[in-house]
């Protein structure tokens, strides 16, 4: 890696960041495409100061992760319409000091599923009602899917369902519900609690199942679904695609998907 006076700086801001593999993925992408750029992780609880620092230091682009995806929006100059509809920004582009916010989680989820199936006209159940579920919901609604939101807390699930003009189902209501695609959008099953599963195994009936968690690579949910004969989509595919969308926004170039995936896999296998 070359670092000199022309090196462009990118970063991720959030708290905590000990788990993030974004630096591994983006630095490999810069290396593979010959970009004179470096990507750093800045763990902070001082969001406004971090955004001001981005302007002051000319940081060209930032990933934004928990807990700042919503809180960062009033601090930016422009918000992409999709990010505004979702209510969350995970990507900032610095254009000459003017900061624009985007959401690439939605595009990442959609691209990962389209590797397996076209979602238009499909019956999609999204498990969860947080920011990840909201991003996926807007993406698949725009893609023409028929959505059902399932959540353990009915009030939050119904609120998201109303925002998406979707149906709501309690978790137990999934039994026997016709579904073409199940999207798991809760943190249940994430490292280091990978022994947990967000659903009773009897409720895992969809022919295609995606888990938005990328660590571990195969969650308990995906393991059960695969043994039942379902096609499974690991969260790693969404992570790579959302990062690829960020790379396009920042550099205007096509991202090196294979190199990005290889870097993340290597980091997962040799933490």
Question: What is this entry, summarized?
Answer:
By secondary structure, the protein is of the alpha/beta class. The chain has helices at 22-33, 47-57, 81-86, 105-114, 131-142, 154-164, 220-227, 235-251, 257-269; strands at 8-14, 37-43, 61-64, 78-79, 91-95, 98-102, 123-127, 146-150, 167-169, 181-184, 208-211, 231-233. Helix 8 packs across helix 9 (257-269).
Which descriptors apply to this entry?
single chain, 271 residues, alpha/beta, six-stranded mixed β-sheet, six-stranded parallel β-sheet
Write the element-wise H/E pattern from the N-terminal end onward: EHEHEEHEEHEHEHEEEHEHH
Question: Percent helix among the residues?
Answer: 25-40%
Strand coverage percent: 15-25%
The CA-CA distance between the termini, in Å, is 21 Å
As residue ranges, the low-confidence spans are: none
- Quaternary status: single chain
Task: Describe this structure as you would to a colleague.
The strands form 2 sheets. This protein has a 6-stranded mixed beta sheet with strand order 2-1-3-5-6-4, sandwiched between helices. It has a 6-stranded parallel beta sheet with strand order 9-8-7-10-11-12, with helices on both faces. The chain is of the alpha/beta class and 271 residues long. Helix content is 37%, strand content 20%. Helix 4 (105-114) crosses helix 8 (235-251). Strand 7, helix 5 (131-142) and strand 8 form a beta-alpha-beta unit. It is built from 9 helices and 12 strands. It has helices at 22-33, 47-57, 81-86, 105-114, 131-142, 154-164, 220-227, 235-251, 257-269; strands at residues 8-14, 37-43, 61-64, 78-79, 91-95, 98-102, 123-127, 146-150, 167-169, 181-184, 208-211, 231-233. The model has no long low-confidence stretch (mean pLDDT 94).
